[in-house]
Amino acid sequence: MQTDIVNKKTNSVSVVLPSYNEKDNIVEAIERISSALGEDLHEIIIVDDNSPDGTWKLVQELHHPKVVLIRRIHEKGLASALSDGIISAQGSIVVWMDCDLGLPPEDIPRLVARIGKYDVVIGSRYVGRGRDLRPPIRAFLSTVLNLYASAFLGFKVRDYTSGFIAVKKEVVEEVPISRIGFGEYFVKFCYETVRKGYKVTEVGYIYKDRTRGVSKSGGDLKTLLKYGWQYGVLVLKLRFR
Considering the entire predicted model, what is its pTM? Predict the structure, then answer.
């Protein structure tokens, strides 16, 4: 693992962004996150799986004073990338999200503002003014999957597949995320934090499909059903283990 580390401070927000072939989005993501958080931003941790398109090189060339680059040479995967980023985070609040700009960086302060009263704040498509503006089949399947997850794991969480969250650092130290799988880690993390008695809430946000780059979760029906099956099996394992 090659790591470039910038100055660190404590008691602020660390944002973790896993990246793979995101050269078309990464610079804008960094700029929008920096603008949204201002002085509250401690660091943006980019965990890049040695992207063939040179995403990691683009990040290096920015020389941004609050960007930490972790370039992973020998390991790949969303969950493990997030785990590495979260472990290295120095802020008292950790936020993670995709860097494809489907999740709005401008909503990060809305999540962070609830930390204190709550330990975990999830960005949700299914509460308040939350919406899913992706193609109808993807939005429909996500809705069905999350209703299924809530029915078995509890309605304290409505968006078990969000991937957009703000958490007190001590929570992820007590409930580390799984390093295995694609998005299943998020279902497990949400369920475990509720089960352990942490205060969890959701804030509505509008999810839009990416406009640049290629989705890692795939867009064809076969791939979506495969991921849906994996999530469904995990839900049953968590509920009846």
Answer: 0.90
The one-letter amino acid at 221: L
The residue assigned the tokens 């989005």 is: 25
Phi, psi dihedral angles at 126 (to 5 degrees) = -120, 15
Nearest CA-CA partner of 22 in 211, 156, 194, 212: 212
Rounded CA separation 105/15 (Å): 10
Calculate the CA dihedral of residues 86, 144, 123, 99 and round it to 10 degrees.
60
pLDDT digits (tens, 9 = 90+) for 133-166: 999 999 999 999 999 999 999 999 999 999 999 9
Report the alpha-carbon distance of residue 174 to residue 183 in Å, rounded. 20
CA 231 to chain centre: 16
Q: What residue has token string 């009846």? A: 240
Burial 197-236 (b: 16+ CB within 10 A, else e): ebbbbbbbbebeebeebeeeeeeeeeebeebbeebbebbe
Residue 118 is given by DSSP the state: B
Domain 2-240 part of CATH 3.90.550.10: yes
Q: CA 136 to CA 83: how far, in whole Å?
A: 31
Place of tokens 């949700």: 124
